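$ run holo --ligand "adenosine-5'-diphosphate" --emit tokens
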Amino acid sequence: MIIKLNNLNYIYNSGNPFEKKALDNVNLEIKEGDFIGLIGHTGSGKSTMVQHLNGLMKPTTGQIIVDGIDITQKDANLKEVRQKVGLVFQYPEHQLFEETIYKDIAFGPKNLGLSDEEIHIRVKNSMELVGLDFEYLKDRSPFELSGGQKRRVAIAGVIAMKPKVLVLDEPTAGLDPRGRDEILGEIQKLYEKEGITIVLVSHSMEDVAKLVNRIVVMHRGRVAMDDETREVFKRAEELEKLGLGVPQITRFMKHFKEKGNDIRDDILTVEEA
Ligand code: ADP
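-- output --
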């Protein structure tokens, strides 16, 4: 077990008229090697939840264990936790700020106090892992790049910290279909090559369905479903109630059936009617 959330609650603006319960008794276990799709409507609590995974947000109540450390304890070493759990925010390219791509990616490793040689290796490797040409791009400004490429630089900066778990919050938001497919392809490769544990946050079934092996569905701050991808797809009626896009579900159930998975024919027929 790499991350465990126990009875997690989070309330924004506690005690004032804008009070909002964003996480409602969330229990979740993330195991080493998991590739999880965290899905749910806008406002269901996904971003709030993932910001708890590396100690960026402190729960109102509940406990978070990361790699054996209870990070909700006062004396927890949060620096170490942030290195173990790399979080790629929404629109991460907004956080690029260095004059060269190399410096931007090197920023985190430098803060770890690593040698120049080790930093060089990490920058090069992480650029290669996200499909960026090291020699061609290292001395360029990140601001010369396309939206999709900038995002890769930002992801490379997190990978360069060598996290055990990589959490990506809506990594395809605002990209065109090509940029979206490219980023998702890079994420899949990363999982296959590096064996890193991944949590991919998305409001789109379509994005996650083809990649992940486990789906966690959030609804109104709660975990509404948590199962293997194909098991979640079998529960089409519940997904429909959660407003998660029936036509897409039909399409992907077909996809899974074609791959020989045990999807009920009656569900497919009903969905198509
Ligand atoms: P998601 O990532 O699934 O879109 P969020 O975690 O961003 O969901 O939001 C969960 C709930 O918390 C929503 O109702 C949202 O309006 C509320 N919320 C999120 N951020 C804040 C904030 N900074 N202040 C107050 N309420 C917030």
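-- notes --
The longest strand covers residues 20-30.
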